[in-house]
């Protein structure tokens, strides 16, 4: 069976959670190489070793990356492109949750920390990836199913709706709405340049961070509000992202693809 992917993946926040699961999904579906970045250098090296152990034929480049630092982003993207010659599938996954505090109780420093990572970090990462993709040709130049590159920005179902009274995460909500706006604007700007840009909007996912809080009364109430009656496995979101960067979604531009167990349709 032909592989779904055949190019080079670049993933931020890949040491754990959805980012790590996405790296494994890319490897499983045929990516020839991966550049994976994370602020935790020890953990990202461990992730690279795990991927190589499971998929010996793939090249993996682990990189220490701070998406809050413009220089770090530009250097890491340049390293990935220098090592592999191109970046075909970029996933801007690195992010933080922030405190569950409404505006009246939120400090300027806490607000800025979330904005710097979740919105500015995604924009700076996407900008560096776009600049690289503009230098390269599609993997298959004669096919409309292939582009110069594809980018998935990590948003959230809370980029479409507001958090509840139980979870008043104003900074998180604002940044995820911003990611969707950024995605739409850049999707229009670069569609005719051969770059596809979309946003992933997951609901609650069984990441290590959420698992630690899943027994709480607040989280149990949120799960009960989900029509599916459960939270997503990380691999379910990762495989959705793989679809989004693959030729199977070749006519998808500027979409916010929702995978939330039905939460936002209520």
From TrEMBL:
CDD domains tied to this protein: SDR_c
InterPro entries reported in the protein's UniProt record: NAD(P)-bd_dom_sf, SDR_fam
Domain of life: Eukaryota
Pfam families: adh_short_C2 (PF13561)
Record keywords, A-Z: NADP, Oxidoreductase
Gene Ontology MF, one: oxidoreductase activity
Keyword NADP belongs to the record: yes
Family: Belongs to the short-chain dehydrogenases/reductases (SDR) family.
Protein name: Oxidoreductase
Origin species: Exophiala viscosa
């Amino acid at each position: 069976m032909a592989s779904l992917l055949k190019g080079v993946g670049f993933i931020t926040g890949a040491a754990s959670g959805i980012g790590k699961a996405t790296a494994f999904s890319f490897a499983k579906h045929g990516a020839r190489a991966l550049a994976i970045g994370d602020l935790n250098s020890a953990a990202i090296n461990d992730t690279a070793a795990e991927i190589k152990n499971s998929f010996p034929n793939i090249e993996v480049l682990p990189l220490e990356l701070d998406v809050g630092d413009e220089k770090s982003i530009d250097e890491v993207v340049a390293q990935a492109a220098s090592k592999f010659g191109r970046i075909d599938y970029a996933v801007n996954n690195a992010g933080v949750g922030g405190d569950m505090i409404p505006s009246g109780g939120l400090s300027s420093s806490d607000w800025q920390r979330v904005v710097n990572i979740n919105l500015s970090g995604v924009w700076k990462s996407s900008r560096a990836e776009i600049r690289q993709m503009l230098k390269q040709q599609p993997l298959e130049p004669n096919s409309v199913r292939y582009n110069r590159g594809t980018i998935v920005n990590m948003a959230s179902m809370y980029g479409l709706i507001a958090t509840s009274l139980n979870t008043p995460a104003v900074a998180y909500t604002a940044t995820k709405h911003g990611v969707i706006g950024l995605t739409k604007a850049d999707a229009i700007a670069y569609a005719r340049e051969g770059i596809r840009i979309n946003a992933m909007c997951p609901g609650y996912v069984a990441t290590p961070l959420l698992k630690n809080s899943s027994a709480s009364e607040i989280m149990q109430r949120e799960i009960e509000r989900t029509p599916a009656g459960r939270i997503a496995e990380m691999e379910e979101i990762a495989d959705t992202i793989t679809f989004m960067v693959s030729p199977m979604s070749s006519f998808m531009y500027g979409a916010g693809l929702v995978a939330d167990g039905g939460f936002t349709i209520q």
